[in-house]
Amino acid sequence: MSVPLIETRDLKKYFDVAGGKLHAVDGVSLSIERGRTLGVVGESGCGKSTFGRVVLRLLDATSGQVLYNGEDILKYSNDQMMKMRQKMQIIFQDPYASLNPRMTVSEIIAEPIRVRRTIVGNSAIMDKVDELMQIVGLADRFVNTYPHELDGGRRQRIGIARALALDPEFIVCDEPVSALDVSIQAQVLNLLMDLQEERGLTYLFVTHNLSVVKHISDEIAVMYLGQCVERCPSDELFENPLHPYTRALLSAIPEPTLEARNKRQEIIRGEVTSPIDPKPGCRFAARCPHAKPECMTDSLRSQEISPGHFVSCLLYR
Amino acid sequence: MGEHLLEIKDLYVEYVTDDAHVYAVNGIDLFLDRGETLGLVGETGAGKTTTALSILKLLPEKVGRIAKGSILLAGTDVTAASEAEMRLLRGETVSMIFQDPMTSLNPVLTVGDQIAEVLQLHKKYKDKAGVEARVDEILKMVGLPPERKQDFPHQFSGGMKQRIVIAIALACEPLLLLADEPTTALDVTIQAQVLALMNELKQDLDTAMILITHDLGVVAQTCDRVAVVYAGEIIETGTVEQIFSGDRHHPYTVGLFQSIPDLKKKTRRLHPIDGLMPDPTDLPSGCKFHTRCPKCAQVCMERRPKPWEEDGHIIRCHLFAKGGPEA
């Protein structure tokens, strides 16, 4: 067995808040093979973005391990981590807020190179910037423009070019297309998939949009209140969802077809419960149509139902 | 023949500032009957929200103006109505659900007071007890416990806030409801709850609705008719069946559908529409879509296409004008 590029083991991130401890990420164990894409889906507040940030050590984990090529990067010193960061980059959700408004497009893209000094000399750096702009499909004429002069799709391309500037191996894409219109969203998704093919990139793709995640991912993890409730290959999740939450999530997507119009929806009642000091047992139990008394008390363990298909639910014990 | 509840004819709306002249709506025709739901679909900046605001006459003062056209709402010509007349219409005949439930509620009033406000303004009930009873009734209708009317907006979650906004909009049982992206800010499971609620209420009250959205999935699930808007024009309109099936479509509609990843089929690449929305201060000549259209011909750059019609299915494209584009 080859070592996965990224692996998390029982990763936890708790935040101290007024009411107690907020369990943002609570024991997530996932892995991604080199050159593959893992999609992480869930509703707002389920901890998916926090998970992406803890994996990159942009936030310090409370406990657990993040293995990069088999080495625990949570134990790395600042110097070691600095070198490591070159290989791992992030594309942020909001292309309006994640670019410095006082820097030009070329300055933004060149910044990681200047910080890490991977290329020395202005003309060599500018050559690299030109190359990167070409790769992500930004015309030369935008070199000296500022982000506010560009539309959302082009801004997100700047974010992608910046993430590629240090030739990383691994990129966390945190809702990279959520702020974009559908026609622009499709352009950016195509770009991300082309880049993966050409450069063998590994993605952790965080989103709440299930049709986007199906399109881009090899494997999908569904998160609910800080925990991964189901994980399996992308197609399998849509053909054979097992966890009641996954089923509810899938049936809640309005499909753009007429056949789906009269289909009865499995609408789940209620809303996400508080992630502050959660009760023991299954966190979905309060909204689950199949909940039994033991769901409120028994602790859950992820089980492999069929090869590669993991689910945490008492229905499958 | 009865009249339509809402009839918009050849509507042009502009925003004029010192340094720009924005052509937001450029000749929209549409109608709506009682109990019907019309989906207004398009991308950011297509003019969907501007159209809704014109119906309410709530365009930004001094900047936005209706340049041409008429809007007939339940027999009243909105474009000619005075502010006093509009105040009577708003809330009672037509009301609006805004996109963001987080910012459309007043943070310093209890939700009960906010629902009561519209009832008091329209003098629906003689005494306080009557108003209170109606507030309780409406809260129950949208699935919230009446005891919570003493609470402030920040004490509710996003989905619950949107229910309150819906409650306010429906308090006077309006004939027409304008819903501007009512579920875009919500999670899918909450979106499903809110859409189901809106459908139910619409049937009970026989309210007509214009649903503004960019989500074709939401349209397929809730609308009777659809109008696709591009650069301030309706480029295609028809029943949901006509828009979601059949093989005659405007190239822009085709592009929109191909941009959404399909949940059923495995496709390696998406087929997005090339390019970007045209700048509304500097719109292209002829067909406004010609700069991005894969089937663009000479005539498309020169003349605005005339509508092609078949059983109420209208497409504005030269491809359909009498056997294809004319030379």
Question: What's this, in brief?
Answer:
Chain A is of the alpha/beta class and 317 residues long. Chain A is 30% helix and 23% strand. In chain A, strands 6-7-8-3-9-10-12-11 form an 8-stranded mixed β-sheet, with helices on both faces.
Main attributes?
heterodimer, A: 317 residues, alpha/beta, Rossmann fold, 4-stranded antiparallel beta sheet, B: 327 residues, 8-stranded mixed beta sheet, 12 strands
Please explain how this structure is put together.
The complex is a heterodimer of chains A (317) and B (327). Chain A is built from nine helices and twelve strands. Chain A is an alpha/beta fold and 317 residues long. The longest helix of chain A has 18 residues. Chain A is globular. Chain B is an alpha/beta fold and 327 residues long. Helices cover 30% and strands 23% of the residues of chain B. Chain B has ten helices and twelve strands. In chain B, helix 3 crosses helix 4 and helix 5 packs parallel to helix 6. The longest helix of chain B has 18 residues. Chains A and B meet through helix 6, helix 7 and helix 9 of A and helix 5, helix 6, helix 7, helix 8 and helix 9 of B.
Strand and helix layout:
The complex is a heterodimer of chains A (317) and B (327).
Chain A: E1 6-17, E2 20-32, E3 37-41, H1 48-55, E4 63-68, E5 71-72, H2 78-85, E6 88-91, H3 105-116, H4 122-136, H5 152-164, E7 170-174, H6 182-199, E8 202-207, H7 210-216, E9 219-224, E10 227-233, H8 234-239, H9 244-252, E11 303-306, E12 309-311
Parallel strand pairs in A: 3-8, 3-9, 6-7, 7-8
Antiparallel strand pairs in A: 1-2, 1-4, 4-5, 9-10, 10-12, 11-12
Helix pairs in contact in A: 3-4, 3-5, 4-5, 5-6
Chain B: E1 6-16, E2 21-32, E3 37-41, H1 48-56, E4 64-73, E5 76-77, H2 83-89, E6 94-97, H3 111-121, H4 128-141, H5 158-170, E7 176-180, H6 188-205, E8 208-213, H7 216-222, E9 225-230, E10 233-239, H8 240-244, H9 251-259, H10 298-302, E11 307-310, E12 313-316
Parallel strand pairs in B: 3-8, 3-9, 6-7, 7-8
Antiparallel strand pairs in B: 1-2, 1-4, 4-5, 9-10, 10-12, 11-12
Helix pairs in contact in B: 3-4, 5-6
